[in-house]
């Protein structure tokens, strides 16, 4: 099934709870939560206290995207504050397998993420160990960028590698996805769609409905 995961990075943080309920009521199945540390990426977003506090206002599935250096240091903390799925960048750690195991041991779904400069084949050794591969379609670190179409080729490659092994994993795309290009991402083989500015900039419920219309037909 195709899943929509609105990214709260583009939300109005002074009305965060309200806007999360709005995407949930409009039918979004996941909530994408971008954690940035100012080291792995230049920007700093938010961390555990924010996630813990929004966990109290919704039961929606939390899709946490860690853009942090050495994510293995904080897996327990993110699991404890309510993540359902934890995605980390394979470029950010020397211990990909150990980090996946930590996430799984805590009963959470595990995802590995690749930035635009990382080739699709880098995920190959881990495909059997993960629930999701997140293929970034912009340089990680900022919302509101333009989709890099060459990254959709990597989505195709990851989907083919998974199919060859008989694995039905989720493939998520993140960055620059809008109503007018979401079909390209689905057609390339993605089934979990992140959208930030295309959802939260204005008319939130209407945007969610328009995405779902294209994704669920
Ligand atoms: C970028 C983040 C994205 C971002 C997407 O580093 O990982 O999740 O919020 O925002 P849009 O959809 O505006 O490109
Ligand atoms: Zn993200």
Could you list some keywords that capture this structure?
alpha/beta; eight-stranded parallel β-sheet; TIM Barrel; binds D-xylitol-5-phosphate; binds zinc ion
What does this structure look like?
The protein is of the alpha/beta class and 217 residues long. The protein has a single domain (3-215), classed as TIM Barrel. It has 8 helices and 8 strands; from the N terminus they run βαβαβαβαββαβαβαα. The chain has helices spanning 16-25, 48-55, 75-80, 96-105, 150-164, 182-188, 197-200, 204-215, and strands at residues 3-6, 30-36, 61-67, 85-89, 109-114, 132-136, 170-174, 192-195. It is globular and about 40 Å long. The mean pLDDT is 98. D-xylitol-5-phosphate (DX5) is lined by residues 7, 9-10, 32, 34, 65, 138, 140-145, 174-177, 194-198.
- Briefly, what CATH class? Alpha Beta
Secondary structure class reads alpha/beta
Number of strands: 8
Order of helices and strands: EHEHEHEHEEHEHEHH
**Low-confidence runs of at least 5 consecutive residues:** none
Domains, number: 1
Distance between the termini: 11 Å
CATH superfamily: Aldolase class I
Ions, cofactors and other ligands present here are: D-xylitol-5-phosphate, zinc ion
From the alpha-carbon coordinates, what is the Rg to the nearest angstrom?
16 Å
- Helices, by number, come to 8
Shape: globular
How much strand?
15-25%
**Which assembly state applies to the chains in this document?**
single chain
Largest sheet: 8 strands, parallel
State the helical fraction.
25-40%
CATH topology: TIM Barrel
> If you average the pLDDT, what whole number results?
98
Major beta sheet, strand line-up? 1-8-7-6-5-4-3-2
CATH architecture: Alpha-Beta Barrel
């Amino acid at each position: 099934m195709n899943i929509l995961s609105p990214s709260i990075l583009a939300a109005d943080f002074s009305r965060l709870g309200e806007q999360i309920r709005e995407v949930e009521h409009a039918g979004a199945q996941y909530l994408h939560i971008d954690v940035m540390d100012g080291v792995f990426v230049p920007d700093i977003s938010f961390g555990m206290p924010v996630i813990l506090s929004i966990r109290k206002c919704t039961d929606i599935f939390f899709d946490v995207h860690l853009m942090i250096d050495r994510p293995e240091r904080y897996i327990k903390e993110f699991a404890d504050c309510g993540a359902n799925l934890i995605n980390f960048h394979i470029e950010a750690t020397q211990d990909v397998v150990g980090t996946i195991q930590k996430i799984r041991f805590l009963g959470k779904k595990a995802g590995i993420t690749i930035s635009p400069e990382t080739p699709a084949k880098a995920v190959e050794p881990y495909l059997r160990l993960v629930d999701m591969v997140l293929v970034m379609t912009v340089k990680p670190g900022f919302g509101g960028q333009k989709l890099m179409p060459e990254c959709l080729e990597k989505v195709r490659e990851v989907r083919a590698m998974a199919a060859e092994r008989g694995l039905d994993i989720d493939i998520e795309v993140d960055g620059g996805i809008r109503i007018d290009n979401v079909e390209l991402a689905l057609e390339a083989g993605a089934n979990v769609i992140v959208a930030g500015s295309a959802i939260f900039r204005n008319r939130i419920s209407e945007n969610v409905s328009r995405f779902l219309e294209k994704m669920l037909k």
